[in-house]
Amino acid sequence: MTSPTLSRTTFYYIFGGLVLAAALFYGVTKYQLWNAQESAIVESQKTITQLRGAYQSEKEAFVGFAEEQADKQLQLARNIASILPPDENYTDLTRTFDDFFAAHDSAKNPLLQTSLRFGKGQPLAENPQISELPISMNVQGTRSNFFAFLDFITNSGDLNSKQRLMAIRSIQLNFPDGEELIDEEQQVINFTVDMVSYYQTPKVKR
């Protein structure tokens, strides 16, 4: 017959072992959960750091791109203002003509502007945001300089040259020698030019 004391002792050992096993299982499980949680936190922090770095790089790239585009837009606006000024700007237009005639006039190949008159600017009917300024001038020069003048007006309005946009409406020619000498580049020609120069219509009517 089994001793009651032995049975009780055995029971305590078994019960203690079960409690210890349960404690160990609980501890191991908690450690695993804690370790997994810590690993997740570390990975999350790494991901956040990477995202923050990527965002900063994207932000710097965007800021650089925006600044570059702003510079381009500003330069474009300046170029447009040079070919289509915000008003008639008689002073700069007169200086443009003076510079052209001075650059092409010489003793052997003369080009002289004898008169310059401006009319009253008006908005274009088909595009009221743009106005045209009537211009009339009398010029005396050689045949070769006459064609240089035509090229000067024809090539105006180019964004690269930043030359104000102009257009010829009519030309009247007079040959002091009596007739045109097509093969004579130095033949003197008197010509009257009616033309227009364009500008942006001011928002406030004057």
Structure write-up:
It contains three helices and five strands, in the order ααβββαββ. The protein has 206 residues and is of the alpha+beta class. The model has no long low-confidence stretch (mean pLDDT 81).
Primary descriptors:
206 residues; alpha+beta; Alpha-Beta Plaits; 2 domains; 3 helices; 5 strands; elongated
Could you write a compact summary of the structure shown?
The protein is α+β, with helices and mostly antiparallel strands. It is built from 3 helices and 5 strands; from the N terminus they run ααβββαββ.
Major beta sheet summary:
5 strands, antiparallel
Number of domains: 2
Q: What is the chain-wise order of helices and strands?
A: HHEEEHEE
Strand content: 15-25%
The outline comes out as elongated
Number of beta-strand segments: 5
CATH topology of the largest domain: Alpha-Beta Plaits
Helix-strand makeup class: alpha+beta
Q: Which radius of gyration do the C-alpha atoms yield?
A: 44 Å
CATH homologous superfamily placement of the largest domain:
Ribosomal protein S6/Translation elongation factor EF1B
CATH class of the largest domain: Alpha Beta
Q: What is the terminal separation in angstroms?
A: 128 Å
